[in-house]
Description:
single chain, alpha+beta, three-stranded antiparallel beta sheet, 3 helices, 27% helix
Amino acid sequence: MSHGDGIAQPPAEQLAGSIDTGSINKQRRYFLIGATAVVGAAGVVGAAVPFVASWSPSAKARALGAPATIDISKLQTGEMLGPTPAWRGQPIFVLSRTPESVETLKVANDNLADPESTNPEQQPAFAQNAWRSLRPEIGIYVGLCTHLGCSPKYYGKVQPEPFDPDWKGGFFCPCHGSRFDLAGRVVKSVPAPDNLPVPPYRFVSDTVVVIGEDEETA
Ligand code: FES
């Protein structure tokens, strides 16, 4: 039926039906919103679990921070082991100095930036000596240049090298030319500002050394 305004109106039962449909649609909408919220909450929980799990110390993280044991029984005089398996992700150099080198390191050297190892950040107290080590003949250093972290190369022999005609043995960093002596002490006027770090360590026998522990922390 049509009214005078020309707008057709649906029959009353259809109007009632449309109200019911709207009610149902509203209920469905509430249901969908509720369901989405539940799924969303589950997603948040699902996402949170690995996130929280990443806070827990994993076996890998514990292993990375764990002391490293190094067998030095095959280390020959004048040579270097390493880089050995890393300790805390850092390469470790273990070198065996010749008797001549042990003596040479005792001589004051004006060529060095910090010959007395006065920076306590660079070595434990036990290594504040001419060799920067527990045993004069065995040197143990973190093998990362103190300039930008390249790994210096070991040139153990006393002989002229392309980078130094008066070379007495030590480490040369090819990245920007920093040089260190056989105790890891940095030469003056090179980019590296500090001596090579000495890690904490202790000998458990003549030929086995534990990196990451010293007599005070073991
Ligand atoms: S990183 Fe060694 S000299 Fe720059």
